[in-house]
Queue: 2 jobs
Job 1
Amino acid sequence: MNQKHFQVVVVGSGFGGSLTAMIARRLGLSTALVERGRHPRFAIGESSTPLANLLLEEIATEYDLPSIHPLCKWGTWQQQLPQLACGLKRGFTFYHHEFGRTFRPDPEPRQELLVGASPRDEVADTHWYRPDFDHYLVQQAQALGVEYWDETVLDRAVAEPEGMRLTGTRHRGPMEISAEFVVYASGPRGFLSRALGLPEKTFDTMPPTQALYSHFRGVGPLPDYFSANGRTPPYPPEHAAVHHVFPGGWIWVLKFNNGITSAGVVAVDSLARDLDFKSGEAGWRRLLERLPSVSEIFPSSRAIIPFIHLPRLPFRSGAAAGPHWALLPSAAGFVDPLLSTGFALTLLGVKRVAGLLRSHRQKPSFPIQLQDYSELTLLELDTAAELVGALYATMDRFDLFRELSLLYFAAASFSEAARRLGKFQLANSFLLCRHPVFAGQFQRLCASARKAEATGEIDDLRQQIRAAMEPIDVAGLTDRSRHPWYPALAQDLLRNAPKLGASEPEIMTMLRNCGLILD
Ligand SMILES: Cc1cc2nc3c(=O)[nH]c(=O)nc-3n(C[C@H](O)[C@H](O)[C@H](O)COP(=O)(O)OP(=O)(O)OC[C@H]3O[C@@H](n4cnc5c(N)ncnc54)[C@H](O)[C@@H]3O)c2cc1C
């Protein structure tokens, strides 16, 4: 029988689990990483954001993990780790569709939104091709002395006075592993939640949704008419996370540099049932028949793995930590892939769990920190659900959908800039959910958007969203003249330096240090 004791056991070797295990080793703790599958393997959740990449960089610096640094930007990734596939992400591209109609940009243009995240390819974000990305991280964890147990199926977790004992099978033989602290990084609805009997709740603000997705080869480019309004977009629209939004759902299209494209759909239950998502590829084809312009991208595409249907996407655990254990945010809840909130939430969680592991090393009992971790993790998930729920409610009113999306970009870019300036106290929570003023406004506006129906009400709400954004907008998102294309410009940060409590020279230094401007 495989039987061993560690100070820390991390369950699940996605990027969240591997990073946590690496940090635990860097803190000098004996660490095991337990995985039920085997790398390399497919995983969903692929598109990073400026905040996610910044958090990854912070982790790499704080815990001296040089092998992680190249992954924080497209340029360094291509120079130093070209063997790992990824995709170039310069921003977020949204197109709005009506069923049965070809997409036609109007002169305004009212059916699109492009938000630039980086000014140049070298410093751009990426789509992580998870079979390569996650495998690489597991190898780096092993190189640091993490003991890696793959093909391990856990069936029992027993709380003990000094820690936890996990039992199950490994390579078909019995195994037992005990730890002073267990980090659960297994993704949604995992084993520990079941073993500990944690209550599962839903988000009151989210509709029930389902997902259907695959990886494809042979996906074509966006038809020319998508950018036919005669202006030059802030970045090539497909070098982005491309969102095709329609009433009741949306499609993502993410292109990797190995010829593979990730694409899938999330839709509310009624639409998912109507299209019969359960039927897999047939459901996807039925959806494309209703979206003629999206269908033009996929005529000769072929799925290279079987379609995956998730019959229920949102979920939320009743607690995220307890004596001797913590769930990473991705194990504590999931809202939706819309706006790519998952990576940033997970990496914030990894950083905070690192703090818990430090506390554990000094003093094995630390209930206040565990409770704070649990409350903040769930509050951040609830906050993401408030916004995404409002976005689902407005998928048939794209003008309001667009405005609400900008609320996310405003909070995310403010947080990124504040952290880059070392002003962590200004942005210590996701979507500024503990901000003394913005948090309340955000909650109220999302609730109003979920209910607003009359045109006058919607116009008024749009004004209120702009007003709430103004004090934290450091990225030109409230500048009407740019609508609906928002480039990432250094001058916006310089102009808005006072909002960050910073001087122009401080902003210049920060921009130079992170390569956002060149000398
Ligand atoms: C359809 C969809 C699309 C998404 N798109 C995005 C996106 O574009 N951008 C974004 O930021 N986020 C996205 N997300 C969220 C993203 O997937 C997660 O935030 C991210 O994967 C979390 O990483 P992780 O390492 O914590 O967990 P995961 O990536 O879920 O990895 C969990 C690991 O644990 C293993 N495991 C599970 N159970 C056990 C067990 N009992 N014992 C041992 N091992 C176990 C699994 O095999 C896996 O290797 C998406 C999510 C979904 C569902």
Job 2
Amino acid sequence: MPDMQTYSGGCHCGRVRYQVTTALEPVMSCNCSICQKRGYLLTFVPRAQFKLLSGEDDLTDYQFNKKIVHHPFCASCGISSFGTGTGPDQSEMVAINVRCLDDVDLDGLTITSFDGKSL
Ligand SMILES: [Zn+2]
């Protein structure tokens, strides 16, 4: 298993900031309607490994389809740096947009394709 590390991340304007502890594996590129348009690279962590440091009041929630997953974005700069939802066992999960983490070499990641379009 790769090592877990604590990363900082957030939106473009800096209002939304968070910390997340993750091994950055797997990182998924998904072809579902929202991932494709937003260009997400996602990794998932249990809610306990995620801490929103600032920007809660700047987030606008966005939901679609079955409205199970929250896709919040910064109302100031429009960047969607994470999402929240529940895993198969109903535990709270956070989807981290790996593109929004500080100091991550995206070219060094192994990206797994996920066929979310077919779900
Ligand atoms: Zn912002």
